[in-house]
Amino acid sequence: ALGAVAAADLCGASPEGIMEMANHRLYTPQPRLFVSLAYLQLHDGGRVSYALAGQPTPLVRRCDAGVVEEVPAPNHRLPLGALRGGHWDFESCRLAPGDLLLVYSDGLTEAQEPGGSFYGDERLLRLLRDREESAEGIVERVMTDGQRFVGEAEPYDDVTIMSVRWLGVDR
């Protein structure tokens, strides 16, 4: 999947074109293979534009008062390769200086502990609201908490987490 996205990017395609080209390269009628992906661009002024392909909606921890909110969800979020033709909507949000953006895969929130309970959205939201820390620190804390939660249980899915703090400085 990474190769498909990189190849589309090297061709100079628009973000929408990158998603469509990657989908075309990944689609095969049999066996069914699909890939989830979050495509984000951070622009000057703190604007983030993004498309989601089978990924949960990213979260923003606002620096003023520690409020955590989902960014606006795109209407079309189909995983890449799921259908021959696909369309992905791009949305955008604005980060204020100090805001933290967290992008994660559903492997985190759908992780199960040995008793069968899910990690869940609320647990993740609590961790983000809990305290202010660096982008690297929150990724480490969420990963550690997720690993502690599942214990010795067999992983259901892969877990990917990325965090960015907007410092308010343009290039």
Summary keywords:
three-stranded antiparallel beta sheet; about 30% helix
Label the overall shape: flat
Mean pLDDT: 89
Count of individual beta strands: 7
> What is the radius of gyration computed over CA atoms, rounded to a whole number of angstroms?
17 Å
Q: Looking across the biggest beta sheet, what order are the strands in?
A: 4-3-6-7
Strand residues, percent: 15-25%
DSSP helix count?
5
Order of helices and strands: HHEEEEEEHHHE
**Alpha-beta content class:** alpha+beta
The helix fraction, in percent, is: 25-40%
Distance separating the two termini: 29 Å
Poorly predicted ranges (pLDDT <50, ≥5 residues)? none
Textual characterization of the structure:
By secondary structure, the chain is of the alpha+beta class. It is built from 5 helices and 7 strands, in the order ααββββββαααβ. The chain has a 4-stranded antiparallel β-sheet. Helix 1 (2-10) crosses helix 2. The longest helix has 16 residues, at 135-150. The model has no long low-confidence stretch (mean pLDDT 89).
What would a concise description of this structure say?
It contains five helices and seven strands.
Strand and helix layout:
Blueprint: H1 2-10, H2 15-26, E1 37-42, E2 47-53, E3 59-61, E4 68-70, E5 91-94, E6 100-104, H3 106-109, H4 121-130, H5 135-150, E7 161-165
Antiparallel strand pairs: 1-2, 2-5, 3-4, 3-6, 6-7
